[in-house]
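Tutorial, part two.
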Amino acid sequence: MSKLHAFFSSSIQLHLYWIILVAIIYIIIHTYRYKSINQLLDIYFNYIPVLTHEFGHILFNKLSGGKARDLVIVARPSERLATSQQGFAITQSKNGLGQSITTFGGYVMPPLMLYIGFLSTQYQYPSLFITAYLLIFIYFVCLTSRKLLPMFIVILLIFLLYCFFKSENQLAILYVVTITQHFILGVLLGEVLQSSWTIFKLTISTDEITWDGSTLKTLTHIPTFIYSFIWIAINLFTVYQLFRVYFIP
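Running the prediction step on this input gives:
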C-alpha cells in the first residue's frame, strides 16, 4: 500500500526539452517509416497515439449513444503497408449525427490527452494520467478482436509491475513515472504535429482518398476543409498553450 501511495503521490519535474526530443524522433521515424527498421520502430512509437486516436472514435461514439464493436491496432508492418491503416475502430451509431460525432472524435483525442497530460504534471498528479492510459489499455484489451499482442503486453506489464513493487528502491517509482510521462507526452506531441501536416496534405490532395475528413464530408455535406481547419486549429492551439505556459512568463 505504501508503494501505491508513493506512486499516486509522485510529483515530477517536467523537462520540456525531453518531450520535444521524443516528438522529433517520433516524427522522423514516422516520416521514414517505410525504411527497414523504421517499420517496426514506427509501430512501437505510435502504438499509444494510434490507440488514443481510435479510442477517441469510441469515446465520442459512446457519448453520442452508440456501441463499440472492435478496436484494432495494426501491429504488422506488412499489413500497414498493404492497407495504409495504423488502426481502426468498428462502432455502431444510432444515426448519421452519431456517426459524424464518432468520426470527428478521432483527431480530437490526441491533443486533448496531450493537454490533460501536461495539466496532470503541472498540478503534480502525473500518476493519474498514466493510470488513465492503463485503464484505456485494459478497455482496449477487452474489446479488441486481436488479443495476441495486447495480451503479451499485459503479461509484460504484470511482470514489470511485480518487479516494481517487489523492489525496495523508492526512487524506482519516481523514475518509472518520470520516464513514462515524458515518453507518452513526447509521442503525443509528435502525433499532434505530424497529424496536422497529414490533415493538411489530405485536404489539398486531388486523389480520392478515404479518411475521416472525406467521411465527414459525405455524412454532413460540409466541405472537408472546414473539419481540417478545426482539427488543425485544435492541435496548434494546444501546442501554443503548452509552450506559452513553459516559455512565456
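Strands lie at 67-73, 87-92. In part three we will examine how such features are distributed along the chain.
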